[in-house]
Specification:
- With 223 residues, the protein is α/β, with parallel strands linked by helices.
- The chain folds into 2 domains: 2-120, Response regulator (Rossmann fold); 124-220, Arc Repressor Mutant, subunit A, CATH 1.10.10.
- The protein is built from 8 helices and 14 strands.
- The chain has helices spanning 11-21, 34-43, 60-67, 82-90, 103-120, 150-161, 169-176, 188-200; strands spanning 2-7, 26-31, 48-52, 54-55, 58-59, 73-77, 95-98, 124-127, 130-133, 138-141, 144-145, 167-168, 210-213, 217-220.
- Strands 2-1-3-6-7 form a 5-stranded parallel beta sheet, with helices on both faces. It has a 4-stranded antiparallel beta sheet with strand order 8-9-10-11, with no helix packed on it. Strands 12-14-13 form a 3-stranded antiparallel beta sheet.
- Helix 1 (11-21) crosses helix 5 and helix 6 packs across helix 8 (188-200).
- It is elongated.
- The protein starts with a strand and ends with a strand.
Length: 223
């Protein structure tokens, strides 16, 4: 089941979007404030987000920055100025739809993004001499088996499934240490990244695959 979160202050529109997207394998839910959205995000893992720009308690771009890299984000707005579209996309949005819009078009775009997610989340990945089988929990570098801790496996899975996208440090911590992430030492992620680089990179001090995006987080750079 794919979970979608719609954050839209127009309750009638939010209800219409939910009805248009609901299906056997899609479960949409809606809220109308940033606060309510953050509460939902803390309770459940979502496969796609749809955020309005203008919300009663802030800007949808603030939400975008907190979930960027964890799932595709489609921005909704009444603003069709080129600068608004550029700002949304440069902030990490995957798509941008201006109001008024066709629910059929929105549904088609949502399905397209979910297909991309499904393709990337298949259990086995072969990338540049690596074989990562997340179903069998088997990992190989140039044909040689690599032993990874559970934490390293979680980090690798998130990076590989979102390769080419930057994952924020806070989002990684929340998804890797799901129980009590608020108590995790801020250096724990850095230590896990270093250990993973030591096992996968030919030159860990100059990584090719697990890149640091300074001030933001990390990305698996090779697609």
């Amino acid at each position: 089941m794919k979970n979608i979160l719609i954050v839209e202050d127009d309750c009638a529109l939010a209800k219409g979007v939910c009805m248009a997207l609901k299906g056997e394998d899609i479960s949409p839910s809606a809220c109308n404030t940033i606060k309510a959205a953050r509460d939902e995000i803390a309770k459940k893992v979502f496969d796609l987000f749809i955020f309005d720009i203008n919300l009663p308690d802030g800007n949808g771009l603030d939400l975008l920055s907190s979930v960027r890299g964890t799932a595709p984000v489609i921005m909704l707005t009444a603003n069709d100025l080129e600068t608004d579209i550029v700002t949304g996309l440069e902030s990490g949005a995957d798509d941008y739809i201006t109001k008024p819009f066709s629910l059929a078009v929105l549904r088609a775009r949502v399905n397209a993004h979910l297909r991309k997610v499904s393709d990337r989340k298949s259990g086995r990945h072969e990338i540049d001499g690596f074989v990562f089988d997340f179903d069998r929990l088997e990992y190989y570098r140039d044909g040689r088996s690599v032993e990874l801790s559970k934490t390293e496996q979680k980090l690798l899975k998130m990076l590989v499934e979102n390769r080419g996208r930057t994952l924020e440090r806070a989002a990684l911590v929340d998804r890797i240490w799901t129980d009590g992430a608020e108590y995790v030492d801020e250096n724990a992620l850095s230590v896990t990244v270093k250990r993973l680089r030591d096992k996968l990179e030919s030159n860990p001090s100059s990584p090719v695959y697990i890149k640091t995006i300074y001030g933001i987080g990390y990305t698996w750079a090779v697609k």
